[in-house]
Amino acid sequence: MPAIKTTSQNLVRTVDPNVAPIMLSDLERFVPSIVADTPHASRSEKYGFVSTMQLLMGLRDRFQIVQASQSRVRSDQSRREYTKHMIRLRQRGVAPVTELGGLFPELVLINSHDGSSSYQLMAGLFRLVCSNGMVVCDSDMGSVRIPHKAGAIGDVIDASYTVVESAAGSIERARDWSRIELKRDEQVYLAESAHALRFEEGTAIGEAISPHALLAPRRMADTGSDLWSITNRLQENVIKGGLTGIARNPEDRRRSRRVSARAVTGVDQDVRLNKQLWALAEKMAELKAAA
Q1: SS3 of 164, please?
Q2: DSSP string for 196-237
Q3: I need a labelling partner for 21 at 20 to 30 A (CA). Which of 67, 131, 159, 184 fits?
C-alpha cells in the first residue's frame, strides 16, 4: 500500500504520516485553496482573512496533516484556489487502538477563503484497517465554528486542542459500541436508514443497490454483528462506493445495465453523511440501552 494516495484531483491522503507526511507540494498540487495567502476578490474589506496555512503552521509542533481535500468548483473557476476545503490532522506520537482496527483520534478542520465557510472544527476517527475516516457527531464530543475576523487564528488554535481531546474521548464510545450485539432486523434497519441518506429515492443507482449490500463486509476483520462493526461497514460502503447492481430501464423493464456507486469526495457530502451515520449509531446505542 502506498504511503500517499489520491482518490481524485481534489483529495490526498497519507496512510502512515510517520513514514510520509503530506508535504506542502502535495497541498499545492491537489488542494490549492489551502495555501491561498489572500482572500478571493469577492470579499470586502470587512472580511477578516486568516490563512489556513497560518493555522497549520501554528499547529505543526503537535499535529501533522493526514488528509486534505477541497470542494469542486463548477461555475466560477476563479474560486478554485479559494474554495471550501477540509483537512484532517493527527497528533504526533499517538499510537492506534489496535483492538478497534487501529483507531486514531483526529481533528477535522473546514475553512474557505471565499466566504463559503466559517472555520469549523470537529472530532474525527480514522480506522487504519480500512483506511477510512469518520466525522464524529456527538453533543458530548464538541464541534466549534469560528467566524472570519481579525485575530481569529488564536481562537482556532485554542479550540483545536479542545476538540482533539474530544476526539480521543470518542474512542471510548467506539469501545462501548463494540460490546453491543445487534439482531439481524436491527442491522437491516440501520442499513435501510443509511441507504436513504446516501441515495435519492427513485434513482437508478438507489434501486440497483439494495440496503442489504451496505452491510457486506470488505474484510474478515469486519464480519462481527456488534454495533461498532456494523457502523464501520455501513460507513465504508457509503463513503468509498464501488458497490454495483443492475439498473432497470424505467421505460422498458426488460432492458438493464450495470451501475456502480461512486465514492463520496465532496467536502459537504462527506461531512454530512459521516455525521448522519454516527448519529444513527448513537440512536441505536440509546435504544439498546433502554431495552
Answers
A1: helix
A2: HHHS-TT-HHHHHS-GGGGG--SSGGG---BHHHHHHHHHHH
A3: 159
Looking at this protein, which amino acid is placed at residue 73?
V
pTM for the complete prediction?
0.84
Q: Which residues pair with 246 in a beta bridge?
A: 258
Average pLDDT over the chain, rounded to an integer? 83
What mean pLDDT comes out for the span 147-162?
76
* Cβ contact 35:25 at 8 Å: no
Element (H, E) at 27: helix 24-30
**Average confidence (pLDDT) over 238-246:** 90
For the cut 90, the answer to whether the pLDDT of residue 230 exceeds it is yes
Task: Identify which of 131, 220, 130, 230 has the alpha carbon closest to the alpha carbon of residue 174.
Answer: 230
SS3 call for 255: strand
Cβ burial, residue 175 (10 Å; 0-12/13-18/19+): middle
Question: What is 120-133 written as a DSSP string?
Answer: EEEEEEEEGGGTEE
Distance between CA 94 and CA 104 in Å, rounded?
8
Q: What phi, psi does 131 have (nearest 5°)?
A: 50, 45
209 vs 130, which has greater pLDDT?
209
Give me the phi and psi of 249, to 5 degrees please.
-70, 120
Question: Residues 80, 74: contact at Cβ < 8 Å?
Answer: no
Burial letters 1-36, b for 16+ CB under 10 A, else e = eeebeeeeebbbbbeebeeebbeeebbeebbbbbbb
Percent of the chain surpassing pLDDT 70? 88
The CA distance from 173 to 25, in Å, is 36
Grid coordinates belonging to 85 = 476545503
CA-to-CA dists, residue 249 to 194, 212, 252, 267, angstroms: 25, 22, 5, 32
Closest CA to 86 of 67, 56, 110: 110
